Amino acid sequence: MSVDPNFQEENGLFKKGNPGGPGRPKDSFSLVGLLKDALKSVPEGEKKSYAELLIKKILDKGIIEGDAPTHRLIFNYMDGLPQQFLDVTSKGKPIPILGGASNDPDAIYSDDSDEEDNETKEED
Fold first, then answer.
1. CA dist 103 to 33, 88, 98, 109, 123, Å?
2. Contact 90, 96 (CB under 8 A)
3. For residue range 63-114, what is the model confidence (pLDDT) as tens digits?
4. Which of 34, 52, 55, 118 could lock onto 48 through a cystine, CB 3.0 to 4.6 A?
5. How far apart are CA 124 and CA 120, in angstroms?
């Protein structure tokens, strides 16, 4: 990837004051945009929009019919799923990729867990 000196620093990041580009063209195709517009419309012979009818159908299925997967769907969209945490046991040091491709001299290059296991065994 080449770096444009007018807009980017040596490291490839945009220079201060650069907006980063024009963004998506205004007339570009967006399925989400079309769906949002369709949900706002009112079907012929109805008094409520598609969005209102969809929400009523979901609530009826979940609450009146007692459908458990729909219960989960409703709660997940109301509160969101519980946040997932990833436990990385690198002790705060960078983890090298591809077997040691790191410029950091303090990076972890082997699994220290065996040494810790040996220390606890010796104490016992």
1. 45, 20, 13, 12, 36
2. no
3. 999 999 999 888 888 888 877 777 666 766 766 665 555 565 665 555 555 5
4. 52
5. 6
% helix, strand, coil for the chain, step of 5: 40, 0, 60
Residue count of the chain = 124
Question: pTM for this one?
Answer: 0.47
95: its two tokens: 């983890």
Map 81-100 to HEC letters: CCCCCCCCCCCCCCCCCCCC
Q: CA-CA distance, 61 to 78, in Å (whole number)?
A: 16
Residue 17's pLDDT is what?
Answer: 76
Amino acid 30 reads S
Using the structure block, give the residue that is written with the tokens 């929400």. Answer: 55
